[in-house]
Design brief:
The structure is a single chain. The chain is of the alpha/beta class. It has two domains: 137 residues, no CATH class; 142 residues, no CATH class. Strands 4-10-9-5 form a four-stranded mixed sheet, with no helix packed on it. It has a three-stranded parallel sheet with strand order 1-2-3. The protein contains seven helices and eleven strands. α3 crosses α4.
Length: 315
């Protein structure tokens, strides 16, 4: 299932959705439902399919669009410890409720049930459900699918690491005039990026580092017009954005690596990685500050607990 809410730009939405669909097909999913709440959301699903056909990408996968009409399903709630509702429309929550009702025979009509489960198989056929969003591209080691199935059959829920790309100099052409303050330079410590090849002979892993979130520690989103004195992060910036600031003078002479490192001090605790044969983006953490440690061996206590030494900063 893809819990879907369109961006402001229509073309970007369709391209993002198409990019999210492809790895699901490659992983062997036989049916995909895209769940939204707006009357015209189905147009984005259709355009994403047309886009994939235009590049001669042929999929043998059933794709359907479901519109949630019961707004109680997507009603936002307060998360533990929060003072306000996180979102007005929690579409992932609505997608889960809709699928549960379909599987438990609690929908009002056969038409609704067919929208959620399709016509080809009865309800007992569906055993495994994957929930994602259109801004997430699944990277999966297909050789591990039998292990996933065993874990799921044992009643274990599996959650992927939702890694966030960080703008990096290696993403850009060598002669770029893009402002230097808006990406990480290809210079230590930010040039220390582990490349993992999911199509090669190496065994690759991303080892869970637990609940710690060193980069987000003691950070809160500041209100407009204030500054976070603890990490010199301007207002309305997420913790991982603190060091990204547009320079008035973009010349190489004004490039000060010490200031760059100071600005990105919250990223220094993370081991960065890049997946080969993909878009090549650099990843370091998820939005909540958790990380998985890239490894070319299976995960064990040594690489799960390995600490990153932060570079010394001259004051």
């Amino acid at each position: 299932m893809i819990a879907f809410m369109p961006y402001k730009r229509k073309k970007l939405t369709s391209y993002s959705l198409a990019a999210a669909i492809v790895p699901l097909f490659n992983a062997g999913f036989s049916r995909l439902i895209i769940v939204g709440i707006q009357d015209n959301d189905h147009e984005y699903t259709r355009e994403a399919c047309v886009l994939l056909q235009s590049i001669n990408y042929k999929m043998r996968m059933e794709i359907a669009h479901v519109q949630i009409l019961n707004m109680e399903w997507v009603k936002g709630e307060k998360a533990p410890g929060r003072k306000r509702v996180d979102t007005k429309s929690n579409i992932p929550r609505g997608a889960v409720i809709g699928m549960q009702n379909a599987l438990m025979g609690k929908l009002d009509s056969n038409k609704e049930r067919t929208e959620w489960l399709g016509k080809i198989h009865d309800v007992d056929y569906w055993k495994y459900i994957y929930l994602t969003e259109p801004d997430t591209i699944l990277n999966l080691n297909h050789d591990l699918l039998p292990l996933f199935r065993t874990a799921l059959d044992d009643g274990i829920s599996l959650f992927p690491h939702r890694l966030h790309p960080l703008p990096h100099e290696t993403d850009l052409p060598t002669n770029t005039t893009f402002n230097r303050g808006l990406y990480l330079p290809d210079y230590p410590p930010f040039s220390n990026v582990t490349t993992l090849d999911p199509l090669g002979d190496d065994y690759i892993s991303c080892c869970d580092d637990g609940l710690s979130a060193p980069g987000k520690e003691n950070w809160t989103m500041q209100r407009k017009g204030t500054n976070d004195l603890n990490n010199i992060c301007s207002s309305n910036k997420r913790w991982w954005e603190c060091g990204f600031n547009e320079y008035d003078n973009n010349s190489i002479e004004e490039f000060n690596m010490t200031k760059i490192i100071q600005g990105h001090v919250r990223l220094l605790s993370y081991r960065m990685m890049r997946l080969q044969n993909g878009i090549g983006a650099v990843f370091g953490t998820n939005n909540q500050g958790r990380q998985c440690i890239p490894s070319k061996t299976s995960c064990d206590d040594n690489n799960e607990q390995q600490q990153i030494k932060e570079p010394k900063i001259k004051r």
